[in-house]
Design a protein that fits this description.
Helices cover about 55% and strands about 15% of the residues. The relative contact order is 0.08.
């Protein structure tokens, strides 16, 4: 229900934002917006004549409809600027050269120009060209641009506006703060996820770090910040880098989604399609750069179709995640709602459905800043789910290990677990083989169910008679094995006495015989030797009348074994 409500909110927000972009002629840049008219450049056209003869300019047709080439763009009459210093600002475009002509009230026309190679001199944060109007006693009344080699993807002169010095400084400070905050947040998320990846080893974490790195690089190029670091960088080359890095970011985002969701979401044909989309986006970005400037508009249209395909893939991914009951659907929808909406608006802009806006041109960074904030919550919740899954898995593993190591009837160690823990113990060890006397008679008297209960009670009596560090196992039907340190082991007589006192089911009398052997237990050969000698001692105890203990007799006993034999002789009935 939460996911459905959020998706409805995202769709509503998308509709509202598209409606605002289409219906409201909002200012594309801060300051006073300027309306413009356009005419394709022809031989013999000059600025002075065009200022005088404005009838040939088209003020209604969208600039993007004129295709690529050279153009003259005329502004409306400028507002009264008084004595304030002013700058004309407009969006960065693909071009060879732009010459700005300023007409003053006294009839004088002044000009300034820059090329794609020298554009860093006028490029400001936000990928905005800013040209200062030449000062003069007479006020400027109109502007005229001569744009050469325009690709005209979205327009020739994008969102021109007049901005005074103080407003321009405030705008630059605000943009620097926003881009700096995004860079700091992205770096923090990269460090955060890499640190967690060292502990959790989740595939989505390096994919998210790659996405953040691509977005950092894209922010540096698309915002124009790279021009201040590399002032000799051609502005058109900067745009090529931007296109390539945006495609890389989109590809990394899709790769992140594939690792973030469960494998079932992208199983089958969706994995194949997503692979094709990622390959297509990267290939089209490379073609876009190679096609410049010959077939740039065709390459740009193909690039827009690639992003449209990616956008059409998003609802399919969400639908598949819903179908497989993904635990992470609402997390993904919450964190990626804003980037998906903004990407949809940019695709709409690329097809001319909505006009150019500065905030739209920088929407990827703005949306990913929102995503980064929400992702920290999503990742924390993902870690919580992961910790719960691991705790449950650990509990099951411990339970399975206990079941694998434990005799199901008595709860003691089974033979395999007993041997794995006994072999390798350092120091002199005592092995006791305990066998219940006449157990077949017990089964015949009280039945097999009663016999099983006797085994359980007998095992409990053995365990309670021995120190906690002593190993106790059921190694056969009614046969038990005990291994303990020779220096601290309980004398067999005390074990026998504990068994005699233990109340048994149906008041049956149960006794046991014990065979003992002392020696090292470092290797499997040591175990075989000890077991053989203890088993012989067990037969000796049974032959002597049962309900007693015997120690194996060997040649040349050590002092420890001699003292142990003395204990046995004193404790034997």
């Amino acid at each position: 229900m939460q996911t459905q409500a959020f998706l409805r909110a995202v769709i509503a927000a998308l509709i509202v934002m598209i409606g605002l972009c289409v219906s409201r002629p909002a200012a594309a840049l801060p300051g006073t917006p300027l309306a413009t008219c356009i005419v394709p450049a022809k031989a013999g056209m000059a600025a002075a004549r065009l200022f005088e003869n404005t009838g040939q300019f088209d003020c209604r047709t969208s600039q993007a409809r004129f295709g690529s080439g050279d153009f003259w763009v005329l502004s409306q009459r400028l507002p009264d600027l008084g004595s304030r210093g002013a700058n004309i600002r407009y969006g960065s475009v693909w071009m060879s050269r732009i010459t700005l002509y300023v007409r003053y009230a006294d009839g004088v026309v002044r000009q300034s120009s820059f090329s794609s190679r020298t554009a860093s001199q006028v490029l400001k944060l936000g990928a905005v060209f800013s040209q200062r109007l030449p000062p003069r006693r007479s006020p400027p009344i109109q502007l005229l641009w001569h744009v050469e080699g325009s690709a005209n993807f979205r327009g020739v002169i994008l969102g021109p506006s007049i901005v005074d010095d103080s407003e321009g400084a405030r705008t630059q400070t605000l943009r620097a703060a926003l881009y700096g905050a995004f860079a700091g947040m992205a770096i923090a998320l990269i460090v955060y996820n890499l640190a967690l990846w060292g502990a959790l080893r989740q595939a989505y974490q390096p994919a998210y770090c790659l996405l953040m790195l691509c977005l950092l690089a894209y922010a540096a190029t698309s915002s124009g910040a790279i021009a201040h670091v590399l002032p000799g960088l051609d502005n058109n080359d900067r745009q090529k880098l931007s296109v390539l890095l945006l495609a890389s970011s989109a590809t990394a985002a899709l790769m992140f989604a594939r690792t973030f969701f469960e494998r079932a979401v992208f199983a089958g044909w969706l994995r194949t399609v997503s692979n094709a989309v990622m390959a297509a986006l990267m290939s089209l970005a490379v073609v876009w750069g190679l096609a410049a400037p010959v077939a740039l508009r065709t390459a740009d249209t193909a690039m827009s179709l690639g992003y449209l395909t990616l956008m059409l893939l998003v609802p399919v991914i969400l639908w598949r995640a819903w179908r497989v009951r993904s635990n992470y659907l609402w997390l993904f929808a919450l964190a990626w709602g804003a980037p998906i909406v903004m990407a949809g608006l940019r695709v709409a802009n690329s097809f001319g459905l909505i006009g150019w806006r500065l905030w739209l041109d920088n929407s990827t960074i703005l949306a990913m800043a929102i995503e980064a904030l929400l992702s920290s919550i999503a990742i924390a919740y993902r870690i919580l789910l992961l910790s719960r899954e691991r705790d449950a898995a650990r509990e099951k593993e411990i339970e399975a290990r206990l079941l694998a190591d434990t005799d199901p009837l008595t709860g003691l160690l089974n033979r395999r677990a007993f041997l794995s823990r006994a072999i390798g113990r350092t120091g002199e060890q005592v092995l006791l083989i305990v066998d219940i006397d006449h157990f077949k008679r017990v089964n015949e008297t009280i039945g097999h169910d009663g016999g099983d209960e006797v085994l359980r009670v007998f095992a409990r009596a053995l365990r309670s008679a021995l120190p906690p560090e002593t190993l106790v196992a059921r190694v056969g039907g009614e046969e038990f094995a005990i291994v303990g340190d020779a220096a601290t082991s309980v004398p067999p007589n005390a074990i026998l006495e504990r068994i005699r006192r233990e109340p048994m089911p149906y008041d049956v009398q149960v006794t046991a015989s014990i065979g003992c052997c002392t020696g090292p237990l470092l290797r499997e050969t040591d175990w075989k030797l000890l077991y053989r000698e203890a088993d012989r001692a067990l037969f000796a105890a049974k032959a002597a009348g049962r309900d007693r203990a015997r120690h194996a007799i060997d040649h040349g006993p050590s002092p420890d074994r001699q003292s142990w034999n003395e204990v046995l002789s004193r404790s034997a009935p």
